[in-house]
Amino acid sequence: MKTIDLHGCHIHEGWRKFKRAIDEAYFDNHKRVTVITGQGQMMYELPTWASNHPRVREIKQSTSYNPGSFTIILTKKG
C-alpha cells in the first residue's frame, strides 16, 4: 500500500501531489492508497478531489480517532 503525506502543503500543491500520486499508484498496480492530510482545510477538500479523480473508486476515513487520514480504493486496471 502506498502512503501520501500532504502535511504542510498548500492546497494547490496538495492537489497536484494527490493527483500525481494516485496516478502513480494506479500504474504501479496498488489497490489502496493512504492519504494523510492532517486536520486542516485539506481534510475537507480531499473527498471532493477523490470523487473527481477517474482512478478513485472509493474514499473512507481511516479511523474515527484520526480524521485527517483517509484510505483511497483505486479502480481496477483494464
Describe the structure.
It is built from two helices and four strands; from the N terminus they run βαβαββ. The chain has helices at residues 11-27, 41-52, and strands spanning 2-5, 32-36, 56-61, 69-74. The protein has a four-stranded mixed β-sheet with strand order 1-2-4-3, with helices on one face. The longest helix has 17 residues, at 11-27.
Strand content: 25-35%
Side-by-side strand order of the widest sheet: 1-2-4-3
* Strand-pairing-aware structural class: alpha+beta
Number of helices: 2
State the helicity in percent bands: 25-40%
Spans where pLDDT lies below 50 across 5 or more residues:
none
Encode the helix/strand succession as letters: EHEHEE
- C-alpha Rg (nearest Å): 11 Å
> Tell me, what's the shape?
globular
Q: What is the rounded distance between the termini? A: 20 Å
Q: Count all strands and give the number.
A: 4
Compute the average pLDDT: 94
Let me know the largest β-sheet.
4 strands, mixed
